[in-house]
Amino acid sequence: MAATVNIGLIGYGTVGSGVVRALLEKGRYLEERAGARLVLKRVCDRTFRKTKGPRLPASLTTTHAADILNDPNIHIVVELIGGIEPARQFILTALRQGKHVVTANKALLAVAGQELFAVASRAKADLYFEASVGGGIPIIKVLREGLIANRLDAILGIINGTSNYILTKMRDERLSFHEALQQAKQHGYAERDATLDIEGHDASHKLAILTLLGFGMPVKLEQIHIEGISKISQADIQYAEELGYRIKPLAIAKEVDNELEVRVHPTLLEKSHPLANVNGVYNAVYVHGDMVGSELFYGRGAGQNPTASSVIADVADIARNIATGVSHRIPLDRLTHGGVRRLRRMGDIETRYYLRFMVMDRPGVLARLAGVLGRYGISIASVHQKERKAARIVPVVIMTHDAKESQVRRALQVIDHLGFAKHPTVALRTEAPRST
Ligand code: HSE
């Protein structure tokens, strides 16, 4: 007879509702595939008012997390409330009592991942978090298990579905930023506080998790350079298109000369780049390893069912462990460093830049722009000026060759103080496809 595994779920919101529905509707199917009966024992929510999940009998619900955390018959606690506290305390309490934990909590893992891994290790309990990155894409399992033989040198990801959705809608349907954001909220993609999505914080949480798993490198959030997509205008999207690029919200962890670059910002990708055609709410994670070369993992990065799919995969993994009498098969408190020695300072990164100046249309302006860039060692690859319509201010778009970030910053500081520059210059980095 199949083992019975009891589940307590805390947080009956968008994802929690998807998990509960699947557990209730697919019980038999999951039992056959997992080799254990997955029984929903208790669901906790503060109010149950906002849920769109199945109606549950009163015997199954509680408003006190302790009813789950202290129930000796519950084997797996699924934490889906998000945020740092009280989620951290709930998870620590569960682990210390030897319960296994499944969480989608990227913010918590980004700031306290190592602490939680250590506690799980001591308690010989499992802590799984597939749904924390990439929605329905099983990228955590890929990094933790599938690519174990590889030394990685790059992880590039579109890992915020909301930002990707907004930029895609702005490009394809010419929606305004705010219209597109509204739609993302309606679909349930955005965080409760959508600034986490559009200012790059959500992606930085996920990047910290990927960096820890992929490079064995713990990175503090404040060490990640973050720029959101709120500064991207319709004009930049269209100019980039005309030049053969797409603007994508990219999270980058890349080894260069034994240093690791970790940054999140909107990035120009050539249209042939494997990540350039990842649109809408889709996420993708590109990984380069010394044995596998390039790999791309693609799927829905947000939304109820894709995320619930990952939560249930974790539950099933743990249920299999319980059924076969093993636990803590994959300890994460001893991740090795590979060859990366330290983080690279942002000023030291080198890339091609897209620069959009808004300048007075008069003789000598282009020469002065070129002169300042040249003084800072920035070589121009191409120049594009739009013919002026009514206003005397025109956009001038310059693509540079590889240039050092610190030099670009210095040059733009000078240019933005020149009398003919009428708006702060927009500077966007590019990422070239790799040949291997
Ligand atoms: N708000 C997140 C996103 C949800 O848009 O990607 C998935 O983590």
Structure description:
The chain is an alpha/beta fold. It folds into 3 domains: 164 residues, Rossmann fold (3-Layer(aba) Sandwich), CATH 3.40.50.720; 162 residues, Dihydrodipicolinate Reductase, domain 2; 84 residues, 2-Layer Sandwich (Alpha-Beta Plaits), CATH 3.30.70.260. 35% of the residues lie in helices and 27% in strands. Strands 7, 8, 9, 10, 11, 12, 13, 15, 16, 17 and 19 form an 11-stranded mixed β-sheet that branches. The protein has a 6-stranded parallel β-sheet with strand order 3-2-1-4-5-6, with helices on both faces. Strand 5, helix 5 and strand 6 form a beta-alpha-beta unit. It is elongated and about 85 Å long. 47% of the residues are buried. The mean pLDDT is 95. Bound molecules: L-homoserine. The site of L-homoserine has 11 residues, from helix 7. L-homoserine (HSE) binds next to helix 7.
Structural class: alpha/beta
By CATH reckoning, the class of the largest domain would read Alpha Beta
Number of strand segments = 19
- Classify the helix fraction into a percent range: 25-40%
Counting H and I runs of at least 4 residues, what is the number of helices? Answer: 14
Distance linking N and C termini: 50 Å
Uncertain regions spanning at least 5 consecutive residues: none
Largest sheet: 11 strands, mixed
User: Could you name the CATH topology of the largest domain?
Assistant: Rossmann fold
Strand portion: 25-35%
- How many separate structural domains? 3
